[in-house]
Specification:
The chain has 8 helices and 7 strands. With 221 residues, the chain is of the alpha/beta class. The protein is globular, with a radius of gyration of 20 Å.
Length: 221
């Protein structure tokens, strides 16, 4: 997993509240067994014209884009920070929703309201996959949203170590908080398994001392 320390990127605004995971990644795409290729499937039923969404087995084959869908607008192309409405990622617990957001090129998602910006499971899946979910004070979130609507759009610089989002070019700085355990994993590029393996010497030492009935035994055919 790629470490997240600082990131500067263009903002794309999707100021819809209660965006559920079925909207983020429609359920039919959960049939895919791969963990990659989900970027083109992000908001597939809103992003593409009727009948133009990619088939399950070929994510890169699609029809015309819907011109007025916010993320399709020219000003949002190349954006790497998604600014979303309250309760983003609600609904079912599919991890594919985070994969789709991250694989579409977004490193962070900013939503308004501490404890209200994201559904809990989506937020946990985001941290586990290197996508930074940031909950800002609603007034601070609004400043970023307003700036993104202005001609030329807006950029932000995110500093995870300092816990700040700086709106550019205005140079306004806002603060956010994440749990220290999540912050540690993101700063060091660790998912839950990689973090556990940091203690591999201690784990091996414990297993070496454990009685035989505790450790798995190879079954002879």
């Amino acid at each position: 997993m790629e470490p997240f320390t600082t990131h500067r990127g263009r903002v794309a605004l999707l100021d819809w509240s209660d965006v559920n995971t079925d909207l983020i990644i429609p359920a039919r795409y959960l049939k895919r067994i791969e963990r990659t290729g989900y970027g083109p499937l992000l908001f597939a039923d809103k992003r593409y014209a009727n009948g133009g969404a990619p088939p399950v087995d070929n994510p890169n084959q699609h029809g015309a884009l819907v011109a007025d869908f916010p993320l399709n607008q020219p000003a949002n192309q190349g954006a790497t920070v998604l600014v979303a409405g309250r309760n983003f990622g609600c609904g079912s617990s599919r991890e594919h929703a985070v994969w789709a957001v991250a694989q579409a090129g977004y490193r962070a998602v900013i939503a308004p309201g501490k404890g209200e910006g994201f559904a809990d499971i989506f937020e946990g899946n985001a941290f586990n996959n290197g996508l930074l979910p940031i909950e800002l004070d609603p007034a601070d979130w609004q400043k970023i949203a307003d700036a993104s609507r202005a001609e030329g759009g807006a950029e932000v610089e995110i500093d995870l170590r300092a816990g700040t989002v700086t709106l550019l070019p205005a140079e306004e700085r806002f603060t956010f908080q994440v749990a220290e355990s999540d912050r540690h994993r993101l700063l060091n590029g660790l998912d839950a398994i990689a973090e556990t393996l940091l203690d591999e010497p201690a784990i091996q030492a414990h297993e070496a001392k454990a009685p035989s009935w505790v450790t798995p035994q190879h079954v002879q055919a």
